[in-house]
């Protein structure tokens, strides 16, 4: 939900040497282009946007508030944690979207979701929320500091996946993929673990995306993987099923010693790679910690992309219509008391759609055991 808000990062991204280009015919390398990570990340079609949130939030008070107030635009990459658009609780108070999907893939910490359809939830710690904005939705994403006696670290990706023209005006929807059910592939030596948020790896299929998603049709070859390599891990990403027809990017987000195709890669690096070729990644023995990569892959939609902040359509006229519609209808209005609504501190992970509240599998098991 953050594209128009994260442009401030571009001015503060560290300077690096110009991108290295590899001549495919000579090197036969799967790497086509290397550059330092920008904020937000550079993304290939069918993706529109991706950002890696890493905030080492301290303990909160009883109201889940941070120890300092936000200034409304706190994106400082040099701080240990940021308030974003939050005032007393970090996060992104209510804002609209139309024409694409948000995939919020969590690793650590918790997020409170509210929207104009009266849906809500608290998720994180490996959960994934996949939301189809479609014809229009307003949502908030807040990061309550639930722990009062210890830090509240938060790590997640937010990824924007475009919708084809035929699905841009579908009814909005979202689904929750609970961490306990998210698919993972671990190598026999236990040194490589791949979380399969979308797509398929070694016969393991990700949980089903929303029905109107570009990812819902397997022919579109959409894959989103989080790859964690322990020291001494060597693993080969298989070639994409879509071959050269698919785009594939790798983002080296954590770690100090990664080799890709035998080439040492600087930390915080973006790689555009040839999806038709397998690609070897290695975290050498003796590395000081794990190496982490995000992979985004898919066939381009191949339609015009016209974007203005939170709206992504095919023509400028459609963007103007978005603004008119939002001014007129507020995409259903905001049913919550606060623009930055959070749930009670003691509430665990849950997802509420309409009147139905769903709990993650681990909570269901605990409830059964108690009864």
Q: Can you put this structure into words, describing what you see?
A:
By secondary structure, the protein is mainly beta. The protein contains 4 helices and 27 strands. The protein has helices at about 10, 25, 315-330, 360-370; strands spanning about 20, 30-35, 45-55, 90-95, 100-110, 110-115, 120-125, 130, 135-140, 150-160, 175, 185, 190-200, 200, 205, 225-230, 235, 245-255, 260, 265, 270-275, 280-285, 290-300, 305-310, 310-315, 350-355, 355-360. It is globular, with a radius of gyration of 20 Å.
How would you concisely characterize the structure shown here?
9% of the residues lie in helices and 39% in strands. It is built from four helices and 27 strands.
- What is the arithmetic mean of pLDDT? 91
Q: Which structural category do the helix and sheet elements fall into?
A: mainly beta
CA-to-CA gap between the ends?
Answer: 40 Å
As a percent range, the share of strand residues is 35-45%
**Which percent range fits the helix content?**
under 10%
Features:
371 residues; mainly beta; 4 helices; disordered N terminus
List the helices and strands and how they pair.
Elements: H1 8-12, E1 20-21, H2 24-27, E2 31-36, E3 47-57, E4 91-97, E5 100-108, E6 110-115, E7 120-124, E8 128-132, E9 137-142, E10 152-162, E11 173-177, E12 183-186, E13 192-198, E14 200-201, E15 204-205, E16 223-229, E17 233-237, E18 247-254, E19 258-260, E20 263-265, E21 269-274, E22 279-283, E23 291-298, E24 306-308, E25 311-313, H3 316-329, E26 350-353, E27 356-358, H4 361-370
Antiparallel strand pairs: 1-2, 2-21, 3-10, 4-9, 5-8, 5-10, 6-7, 6-9, 7-26, 8-11, 12-13, 13-16, 14-15, 16-23, 17-22, 18-21, 18-23, 19-20, 19-22, 24-25, 26-27
């Amino acid at each position: 939900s953050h594209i128009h808000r994260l442009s401030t990062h571009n001015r503060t991204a560290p300077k690096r040497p110009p991108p290295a280009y590899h001549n495919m015919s000579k090197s036969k390398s799967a790497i086509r282009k290397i550059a330092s990570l920008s904020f937000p990340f550079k993304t290939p079609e069918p993706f529109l946007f991706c950002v890696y949130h890493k905030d080492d939030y301290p303990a909160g008070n009883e109201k889940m508030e941070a120890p300092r107030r936000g200034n409304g635009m706190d994106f400082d990459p040099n701080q240990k944690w940021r308030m974003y658009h939050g005032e007393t609780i970090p996060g992104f108070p209510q804002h609209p979207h139309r024409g694409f999907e948000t995939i919020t893939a969590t690793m650590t910490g918790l997020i409170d979701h509210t929207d104009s359809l009266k849906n809500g939830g608290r998720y994180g710690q490996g959960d994934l929320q996949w939301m189809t904005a479609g014809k229009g939705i307003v949502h908030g994403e807040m990061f309550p500091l639930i722990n009062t006696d210890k830090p509240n670290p938060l790590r997640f990706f937010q990824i924007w996946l475009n919708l084809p023209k035929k699905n841009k005006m579908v009814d909005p929807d979202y689904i929750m993929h609970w961490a306990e059910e998210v698919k993972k592939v671990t190598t026999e030596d236990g040194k490589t673990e791949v979380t399969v948020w979308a797509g398929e790896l070694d016969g393991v299929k990700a949980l089903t995306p929303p029905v109107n998603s570009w990812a819902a049709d397997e022919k579109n070859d959409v894959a989103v993987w989080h790859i964690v390599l322990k020291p001494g891990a060597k693993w080969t990403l298989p070639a994409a099923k879509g071959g050269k027809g698919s785009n594939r990017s790798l983002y080296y987000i954590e770690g100090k010693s990664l080799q890709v195709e035998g080439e040492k890669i600087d930390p915080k690096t973006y790689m555009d790679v040839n999806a038709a070729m397998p690609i070897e990644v290695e975290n050498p023995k003796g590395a000081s910690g794990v190496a982490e990569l995000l992979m985004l892959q898919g066939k381009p939609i191949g339609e015009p992309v016209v974007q203005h902040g939170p709206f992504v359509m095919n023509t400028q006229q459609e963007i103007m219509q978005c603004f008119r519609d939002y001014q007129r209808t507020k995409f259903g209005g905001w049913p919550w008391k606060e623009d930055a609504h959070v749930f009670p501190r003691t509430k665990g992970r849950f997802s509420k759609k309409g009147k139905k509240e769903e709990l993650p599998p681990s909570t269901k098991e605990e409830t059964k055991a108690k009864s």
